[in-house]
Input
Amino acid sequence: MLTIPNYIDGCVKNSQSPFTLYSCEGLPYAEAYFATPAQLRKFKRAIPSIKKRLNTIPVDTLIHLLQQAFQNFINDETAEHTAKLSGVPSVIIKQDWNTLRLWFEALPDYLQDNFGSENYQRSPVIHPLSHKDFRRFQAKGPLISILPSNSEIESLVLIAIALLSRTPALLRSSRRGTSNYIPTTFLQCFNKVVDQHTFSSDIAEALMSAVCVANLQQDSVADVIEQLDVIDGVYYLFGSDKTLQDFKHAIPKNRTIVEFGTGYGVSYLSSSAELDSSLNNILESVSYRNGTQCTNTKLLYVHQDIYPQVIDELFTRSLAKKYQPSDVLGGESTIGLLPPESQKSVKSHAANLVHSEQLHINNKSTGLSFIELQPEEVFPEYPAPICGVRKVKDHQDFLESMKNDLERMCMSRNLVSSIYSSDNVEIQSLINSIPSHSIRVNLPTTRFALHIEHQGKSLISSLMQVQTVEGWESMELSD
Output
């Protein structure tokens, strides 16, 4: 079996408490280990020293190290283990990594966009009344995150923004999926890159020790927070709204909390839409990564004039081999296998659907499914490629229906909505009215743009605080 250790104090660490991670087929696949309280205490005591040394490293050096590490990280072996642990086909994983590679390559532009300068410790104030003034951004405190099980991209981005911000990070991984394997493997690649450079031993140690990835044996929210909490910590939380509320109640009041919990992607198909390309985008939005991402379309609203044609097309196209569950390593499908716990959840809720016969489910997994909904039928966010479909009279009826659906889910805003229309007046009206953090026009909900704010928050800016310096020209700044 694969061994997945914790990553603490700049190296991989095992303990006397192993546990088993299962593959998407439900078979034992990897042995992981719980971190000990002593290991975590040692890391937390070292945080001030690590942060002080990180602040001496130029930003362009950090960017270079991250780019090299990611390039070494993406290979066939890593993709295979990721596919087996997540159930997502390796071909999709490689596509996602290619998108992430472009983000790593554009890190200077990412910093420029967020801070006005790649050198965020000296970002000039551009104003006619400004004279030698600049803004200096610095991390509020160490980054702390409770990673979800399907967190390949999130964990890599969090590691990158922690190092770019020159602050340590403590990541608590999940006991299933790729949550532990991905960050640990990436950090081992990062260490090898650091070893190839001529850093002093103190700087090399700080770089290698800056990020801690740990499995915790504790289950209760209060116990988890007690193990993770650090003074001035900035919490990045992922999960359902209920999960976020549970963690927020346990986190000390004077900590910064950045929430990423809202999902429930929505698409609206207008009668003016270009039907063929729109349907292909919707199929992608529902099936992407087995329907387990916060950006997947979970509800589709279709204008009544095209509803019968759309339903026929969706049912026909969803039966294509491309959308049937298949082997995650060599199949032709873009859908892999749902992990056993997700498949169990789908089966337990399927009986509540009025048209449950439209669900493509078997003993092993769930295929791409579109379910016609009754006017008042509640449709939850399934961890699978399943989408509810509602017929609406016009875009005003869509807005009212969407509002009612969000209220049923105890939400005021969803993460992302896609508008499929060729009517610019209609598009403008919807942009002004849709209660979403992000709106995409004639694009899939799943085209996640890392360089743009997520749920109205910039991932890196949320970690920083700003200090204004006036009337001083010196470029040499350090903590």
